[in-house]
Each structure stands twice: as C-alpha cells, then as structure tokens.
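User: Teach me something about this protein's shape.
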Amino acid sequence: MKLRFTLIELLITIAIIAILAAILLPALNSSRAAALAASCRNNQKQLGLLFSLYSGDSDGIIPISYCAVNDIQWSVQFFPADKLPKYISCPAVSSQKKNKGNTYGSTVMLGLGTPYNTFHGNPSMEKNDGEGGASQRWFDTKVLRHASSYWFLSDSIYFSGTQEGSEAYNPSVYSNAGFHYRHKGALNGLFADGHVQSGTHGKIRAEWLKRNSWLATLAGQHRMENYQSFY
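Assistant: First, the predicted structure itself:
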C-alpha cells in the first residue's frame, strides 16, 4: 500500500516541525549555555588545584607574569607556550576567537587597591630586574590572609582592538580589557582558596570588591555586552 500526501498535508507537517523546533530551540540554547558555564567552573577548579600544588612545591610562591616590552602571560609560567591545555580558557569562547593569548584573566595582575591587598596580607609581589624596565610578579601564599575572599582568576575579554572578543589574560583599568559576564549575565571567578563562584554584576560590586579602593574605576571595566558573534 502506497502512502500519498497532498501538498496541503505536507505543508502542515512542515509547519508543525517548524513550530516544535522554535519551541525547543531556546531550551536547547539555555541548556548549552548552562553546560558551558559549568564546564568553565570546572576549568577554574582545575587551575585552583594547579596553583595549590605548585605553591606547595615552591615555598608558597605562584608566578604571575614576567613583564617587559611584551607581557608574558601567567599561563606560560606553567606550560610550554605551544602546549597550553584547554582548561586555561573558558569553553564559551568560540574556536574562531581562541588564540595562544586566551586565558582566564588574572586579577592579581590588575591589582585591587591598597585596602583590598592590606586586608589579604599583601600577597601580590613585584620586583624590577633592571632589564629594560622589566619586572617579575608573583603571589606569595605564605602571607595570604582570608584566602576565601581573594579573587584570583576570572572570565575576561578584550572589548576592542585587534583581539576584540578574545579572552584577556590581564584585565586592566588602563587598557581595553576587563571582566566579562558571558554566562547569562554572570561570570565565574576562582578564589585563592581554590573555590569557584558565579557572580552577577551586583554581587561582585557588593561582595567580591567591597574592600576595593578602585571600585568606581573597576565597575567601568565590567562589560555587559553579549558579543553574540563570538560565542
């Protein structure tokens, strides 16, 4: 027995499929975004473990950067530049925008103001080695206090320039790089004790940066753009 469909029946079937797809697509996109956010938090937890193990073998010291004419990212203090693992970068950033410079942003590079660092024992250190104005930066866990409130790494982005849409390893109040709320209006942050939180703009202003003397300036670096072409 051969089944025969009229043109009207075929069009009705196509319309029903289109309606179902339109209903399900937002739910699928939401589930995908939630999965990427969870994967991002797991990445940062792995980095927290890496820093803990490294400091345990290095008298409490965690290297942050070696700054000269070109900043050297914190990531290459731990891995060869051509063999960087995937977990140093947020999975929500598309492969088209990923490059060797894509890493979670280090708030230790940024510096969060004198009151903030004094409260935490001034764990961020810097030394000029005299070579062309270059300096070394590191994080001393031995003097760290209140590790659970010291913000260490974060979702970040370049807001403009040739790397627009790429992750920024060094959020800065002086550049085109800052923190980015790419996970449904929130970002993920790793703290010095190894735990990871998800924070909205309001939560970060009220809790994560409550001892920050540069709050007004930093708030200007918190960008809410979706950058849909990049994610």
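Now, about its shape. The first strand starts at residue 61 and ends at 67. Strands lie at 61-67, 71-72, 105-106, 124-128, 135-140, 151-154, 156-158, 177-179, 186-191, 196-200. If you'd like, I can walk through any region in more detail.
User: That's plenty for now, thanks!
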